[in-house]
Amino acid sequence: MKILIKAEFYKLGKLPSVRLIFLFTCMAAMLRGFSSYPGYQMYIIALVPELFDAVVVSVFTAAFLCAEFSNRTFGNAVLSGVSRQNVFSAKLAAYFPGLLVLVLLPLAVSVCAATIRNGFGADWDAVVWEIIEKLLFYILYRFFMAGFAIFAATLIQNSIGMLGTGVAGICLITLIKKPMEHPVTQITFLFTIVETFMFLSLAAFIFAKREL
Q1: CA atoms within 13 A on the CB side of 101
Q2: Which of 4, 51, 75, 170 could join 212 in a cystine, given CB atoms 3.0 to 4.6 angstroms apart?
Q3: What is the pLDDT of residues 80-92, one digit of tens each?
Q4: Per-residue DSSP letters for 17-80?
Q5: Dist CA 119 CA 130 (whole Å)
Q6: Are 128 and 40 in contact (CB under 8 A)?
Q7: Mean of the per-residue pLDDT values for the chain?
């Protein structure tokens, strides 16, 4: 299992498409940071899920996950004696750390750029716990987006189809849930975690049953 996970991290670092995604998101975040907003206001704005987030998560999933279906990499791994559960678990073990960096790096870049230009705009001591709370939910909701994207990827097994379904599905769910318009509570955290695991469980079930 450790060898599988190391191999997935190696793929993550070497895929040109993944590198381009990281570069694009950082450049977009830098451009966003060149605004009239101070750092704290930029932070609050950047937390709100947008079409950009749905596209980034879906493209990353297509590049790192769907390509394995197209290249028959998953099928070859299973044929060589590796269990489907281990193959899927190793992929997710590299996917989520990669996604974590992908969602945190542009946030940090845009906030730092805005703070350097216009100051932070708030008393750090007064807002630190709010920042931490909102940041945790920001990460969790992006993982929820990823859960849906992974579900779509295992169901469709095609990059183009997955991109359309992933972006449309994430946007629709976000419009219905409006996650950042309500106070972040323990119930909100719990429901988001349950929904994320629900999509991942469905994805794991499909992965175990479908032809690879």
Answers
A1: 13
A2: 75
A3: 777 888 888 989 9
A4: HHHHHHHHHHHHHHHHHSSS--HHHHHHHHHS--HHHHHHHHHHHIIIIIHHHHTTHHHHHHHT
A5: 18
A6: no
A7: 87
